[in-house]
Design brief:
Order of helices and strands: HHEEEEEEEE
Strand order of the largest sheet: 1-8-3-6
Largest sheet: 4 strands, antiparallel
Number of strands: 8
Length: 162
């Protein structure tokens, strides 16, 4: 519509500030993205996407208390000369003889580590440990005549090599 004076005037348009429109657009975009992500996440349970499962196993070995040490040493009747069978605490000179012994490693699945300790006593305290180790494969240990006991856990039978 033409106004008197010959000029075509349009009604004054109120200008919206650009920062407001940009903020509104960004907010709408974020909401759409969040909605799409949640829908995608809920449907991913049926997908063939492989997932990794990590299992950590912690083995804790406890040495016998003084009251149980003599009972465990009664393994002397079960121990063949020159061998240390599997698990237990063995008294040096009574159950086993000092020397060098070899094990082929852990007893097998699911046990993956074999561990041992040379002991100066049977109190069950960490101060009794002369030396100790764990392995996944074959191992050799030398037990001294001055050791009081030897502890073996999750290992195959040890055989004397000397």
């Amino acid at each position: 519509m033409q106004q008197p004076g010959g000029e075509n005037k349009q009604p004054a348009r109120r200008r919206i500030r650009p920062w407001l429109t940009h903020t509104a657009a960004a907010t709408v975009g974020l909401l759409i993205g969040a909605l799409a992500a949640s829908v995608d996440r809920s449907s991913s349970h049926d997908s063939a996407t492989p997932t990794a499962t990590v299992t950590a196993t912690r083995t804790q070995t406890t040495a016998p208390s003084p009251a149980t040490a003599p009972a465990r040493s009664q393994q002397a009747g079960r121990v063949k000369a020159g061998q240390i069978p599997g698990d237990g605490v063995f008294l040096i000179g009574r159950d086993i003889e000092p020397g060098t012994y070899r094990s082929e490693g852990p007893q097998g699945d699911p046990i993956t580590y074999c561990n041992w300790a040379r002991l100066s006593g049977t109190s069950g305290e960490s101060k009794d440990v002369i030396s100790s180790d764990s392995s996944k494969g074959a191992e050799t240990v030398t037990i001294a005549a001055t050791d009081k006991a030897f502890r073996s856990n999750s290992c195959q039978t040890r055989k004397k090599t000397n």
